[in-house]
Design brief:
124 residues; alpha+beta; 1 helix; elongated
């Protein structure tokens, strides 16, 4: 190997070592952190609208504008992001288990949005 070939190999190899970590970091899925204070945007749901009929019974839920609204019973409702903090899939609500499963990778959240089972590590 002559000097020119050696220099080209070192430059290409060095560049590759610098570029690969940046490319891998750019491919990483980022999600916004949850607003844990409860001070998110205001959402009004019309319970008389037939599209929201599921909220008229305990255990019913709807998803509106990436927000899941759940009827917990006794005119008590809870609302949080419906987007899983792991990979951005939409969670649902299981009234029987009283939790929010993510269909994509199996994350599980409690009725308050806290993580019960990963791979998600951040609350809804």
């Amino acid at each position: 190997m002559n000097r020119r070939e050696l220099l080209r190999t070192v430059v290409v190899g060095g560049t590759t070592l610098l570029v690969i970590p940046a490319v891998l970091q750019a491919c990483k899925k980022d999600t916004d952190t949850a607003d844990e204070t409860g001070g998110g945007s205001k959402l009004t749901v019309d319970l008389s609208n037939p599209d929201n009929a599921a909220l008229n019974k305990a255990g019913g839920y709807i998803i509106v504008s990436n927000v899941i609204v759940i009827n917990k019973g006794n005119d008590n409702y809870t609302a949080m992001s419906s987007i899983c903090t792991h990979a951005g899939c939409t969670v649902s609500y299981s009234a029987a288990a009283n939790n929010l499963p993510c269909p994509c990778h199996g994350s599980l959240f409690d009725i308050g949005g806290a993580v019960l089972k990963g791979p998600a590590t951040k609350p809804l």
